[in-house]
Amino acid sequence: MFAALHGRGNLQSVAFEFSPLVEQTALDTITFDVSGLERLFGLTQDIATAIQRRANETGITVNLALAMNPDAAIYAARGFTGVSILPQGDEAKFLGSLPLALLAPSPELEETLERWGIRRFHELAALPPLGIAERLGPEGLRLRLLACGEVQRKLVVLEEPLGFRAELELEYPVELLEPLAFALARLLNGLTTRLATRGLATDELRLWLKLENGAPHERTLRLPVPALDSRAFLKLLQLDLAAHPPPAPVVDIRLEVNPVKPRAAQSGLFVPGVPEAVKLELTLARIRKLVGAEHVGTPELVDTHRPGAFQMAGFGRAKSQGRPPMRVRLALRVFRPPLPARVEIASGRPGFVAARGVRGRVLELAGPWRISGDWWTEDPWSRDEWDIALSDGALYRMYCEPRGWFVEGSYD
Amino acid sequence: MAAVLLQKRFKSMLGGHLGWQVRPAPETVRTGVTELDAAAGGLPRGCLTEISGPASSGRTSLLLSILAAATEREEACAVIDAEDCFDPLFAAAAGVRCERLLWIRCGHHAEHALEAVDLLIQGGGFGLIAMDLGDTPLETARRISLTSWFRLRRAVENTPTVFVTVARESNAKTCASLMLECTRERVSWSQNSTKLLRGIRVRVARRKPGRAITAFYDASALE
User: Residues 59-98, chain B: which have Cβ within 8 Å of A?
Assistant: First the structure.
């Protein structure tokens, strides 16, 4: 059984809600296969009611027709207003009153039929097929079959557009995050269900909020691996909105997900376990809320000799820097920022050092180790480094630069 | 005396089997310091290991070796840095594969470090979680209640995670399954034309479990 929608508006979206086999017959006509929907809705009338109701809900006015072949449904939808259900075997009788212009014959054929006084479907259907074939050729015969509602053909199926977007206009501005979470949950559930029915997952969520003052508030969440967990997505959005709250009440929500194929991976028996991706993302979101987003990640060394130069990358997204050889190395515990120090010089060398939390006589020292770099840029640096053993029992690295003396850290 | 009598009666009721009382020894992993592994037998999984010692005693060198060994095993590791003093350059030089390392900088908030550790343990999947309280003021570290340590110990129990803390002194007390105390033995300076710090010799004493065991290792400075 086929259904045809004729009217203005986004007919495709309505059709795709009922069937994956949809044909864009014309700009104002959509035909789709509704076979099998009886098990879901019941009688043919119930299917028609459901389609009509959905079309009304989306705000479009259409003519709907259901028939056993697509062309009969198309001409019924174009010729009759409202809902038409063509009984099986009586298509010719049902379509009989429609004008021949609906069949869009060629001008010559139209003129010939006009001269014969044939103006309606039933008049063309009543003509003998052999005579039509002799006088009007194959086109005439095709028009007669269409007028009888007997043409059986397959639909030229449309590829369903993979746009996963949901929008919700709120009845009143929402100020708090908790009621907003309810609306987000509804949108997320719908989107994840749609993704699941197509065997897809998502690796990016884009949230667009329209605020009461008309300004937009946009947030984008990128997941390390494709996932399909609406509860985890909701929690991530909640944590993100808590960290970056919209500056004004929200009046409109639009949520879009990026459809991707789900990750298929099988862990080996002897492969060390790794944190579950979505769970880890949730944990990291909670920690980011606690300590700040810029303080969580994987350290990446940068290609420079500038002391203390590194950058933070997302955990699991940092580039591999090879497999450095393992050696027991003396570590430096860095003071961030470096501690400004008061240094007493004795015989041209540091003799006493005082800084916040560091104070003592220099017992032993090594240096100066003069280093500089980036002199070819606008931000050059140079300094003299000293390794010192203080009377407080610790080993420190300190340096002298044009701004003064600083304690960089303690060796440990 | 009464306890012994009760145990005897209980043993007789069970037909002499009290094996259910004995907990299996936890799996141990290498620290990356051969001398320490040979003497103390490595770090137990699912347990709290505490490394303590004063400043410049070699605690961080030991932590970097532990991290290097864990990342070498392809495990995901996390460093919760209470005082923001971790240096990635020195970590990479010690053999830590930074791409497998999650670094959480708590900006001088020990309580944030505790919360982050709790969240990470609950999340699961990490081979090693290290909480660095090495530069945290003593009074702040002492303020962490035993209940908090106990909760962390319970959380990490029955997981494959090695939980390591570094501090100036032992804080977890009875909650720690392994206690390692670091002391600096000596400092080596080069005797070339430009004097340089060459490294330190560290003495590690295992205080718990069992009898005290001592190991020595050298931590060399970056060339």
Answer: 59-65, 68-69, 72-76, 83-98
